[in-house]
Design brief:
Blueprint (H helix, E strand, L loop, with lengths): L4 E5 H18 L2 E2 L1 E2 L9 H4 L6 E3 L2 H11 L3 E4 L8 H6 L1 E6 L2 H7 L7 E5 L36 E5 L8 H15 L8 E3 L13 H14 L4 E4 L3 H4 L5 E11 L2 E6 L3 H4 L1 H5 L9 E3 L12 E5 L8 E7 L8 E4 L6 H4 L10 E5 L5 E5 L3 H7 L2
Parallel strand pairs: 1-17, 2-10, 3-4, 4-5, 5-6, 6-7, 7-8, 8-9, 9-10, 12-14
Antiparallel strand pairs: 1-11, 11-12, 11-16, 13-15, 14-15, 17-18
Helix pairs in contact: 1-7, 6-7
Enzyme class: lyase
Family: Belongs to the Orn/Lys/Arg decarboxylase class-II family. NspC subfamily.
Protein name: Carboxynorspermidine/carboxyspermidine decarboxylase
């Protein structure tokens, strides 16, 4: 193809969904899709073959769950607003408040749903502060010292999110802190949501440990329904972003291949975290090896006006040519949701590679998409 495109591979997506469904059955828990990581609604018919619910963080996501996934959402937001709250309730089955003040303000309008409260165990092993929901000064959740001994009668669940692409061993250690802080309130609850970041579809994830942890938790608290809401796990390694070289420039001995995609527009996590994406057919090189006298070494640059819209550096096994494809692996989770139109740069197209090998274009983007965002 001559246009940049995200390609979702149906076979890989179904592989992840089957594993997640199997874990949910063996652990007797509910695992739901977090839209913040994946919201391509044209794939929802496939998802509904394996899961029943989703999680939303805004009115738009709640509507997507209700109208396109055909099931009310488990909704959490750091702050609900008066103008949106009634419609959010209509689109939700579960609704979690971030603070006691938000609960006091809105709970009387949410009696048709199961109400929860986000809690903060003050423990997380997420190393990147940008993604650590329990970092000191966090705006997320209520700490144990601020909870009343007797919860309000309409609070039925706790929501606790501490992970980011974490393993079951991390969850095992985190669970100790959650129980130490909050188990005395468990008899007053009906459910507990352990949030996202459980990367159970990663090859080195200990699925058996996760199942054991959940089964043991059931034995200790048999009345509690357990919910997990991973995002990345569903779309983990389900497809690449295909781009093309449009120019090659050089300055101070550094050679940059400019692409028809943008890190800031299309792969923002690469700059936010940052992390180095995997490029098919290339290997990452150290900064001291970036000079262009190192054979076939290129910095990859985006096509926006942001000076920092680049990442360094990769060694290819040949000289790159204008028009050549550069393929970024594992670019479906989060990237497809977090794209923006800075500089008026169009989104890459979205396609699905079906199990029969046929590529279906789900969406093209153009000027009208950019213009309509400015309405």
């Amino acid at each position: 193809m001559n246009t940049p495109i995200y390609i979702i591979e149906e076979t890989k997506l179904r592989r992840n969904l089957a594993l997640i469904s199997e874990v949910a059955a063996k652990a007797d828990i509910e695992i739901i899709l977090a839209f913040k990581a994946f919201a391509l609604w044209k794939t929802f018919p496939i998802f509904r073959e394996y899961i029943n619910s989703t999680t939303a963080s805004s009115l738009s996501e709640a509507r997507l769950a209700f109208e396109e996934f055909k099931a009310p959402a488990h909704t959490y937001s750091p702050a609900y607003t008066e103008d949106e709250f009634p419609e959010i309730v209509k689109c939700s089955s579960h609704l979690t408040f971030n603070s006691l003040s938000q609960y006091e303000r809105f709970h009387s309008q949410a009696q048709s749903v199961s109400i929860g409260l986000r809690v903060n165990p003050e423990y997380s092993e997420v190393g990147t502060l940008l993604y650590n929901p329990c970092a000191p000064g966090t705006r997320f959740g209520v700490t144990a010292d601020k909870l009343p001994e007797e919860l309000p009668s309409d609070i039925e669940g706790f929501h606790c999110h501490c992970h980011c692409e974490s393993g079951a061993d991390v969850f095992q250690r985190t669970l100790v802190h959650i129980e130490e802080k909050f188990s005395k309130w468990f008899p007053q609850l009906k459910w507990i949501n352990f949030g996202g970041g459980h990367l159970m579809t990663r090859k080195d994830y200990n699925v058996d440990l996760l199942i054991k942890l959940m089964n043991d938790f059931h034995k200790r608290y048999p009345w509690l329904k357990i919910i997990l809401e991973p995002g990345s796990a569903f779309a983990w390694q389900t497809g690449p972003l295909l781009s093309h070289v449009v120019d090659i420039v050089e300055d101070k001995g550094i050679r940059t291949a400019i692409l028809d995609v943008s890190f800031t527009c299309h792969m923002p996590d690469c700059l936010e975290m940052p992390y180095m994406p995997e490029v098919r057919g290339a290997e990452i090189v150290e900064p001291e090896d970036q000079k262009c006298n190192s054979q076939f070494v290129y910095r990859l640059g985006g096509n926006s006006c942001l000076s920092g819209d680049f990442m360094s550096s990769w060694r290819f096994d040949h000289e790159l040519k204008i028009g050549e494809e550069v393929i970024f692996e594992d670019m479906i989770h989060y990237t497809t949701v977090k794209t923006c139109t800075f500089n008026g740069i169009s989104h890459p197209a979205i396609g699905m590679l079906h199990s029969d090998g046929k590529l279906e274009i789900l969406r093209h983007f153009g000027y009208e998409d950019y213009r309509n965002r400015m309405d």
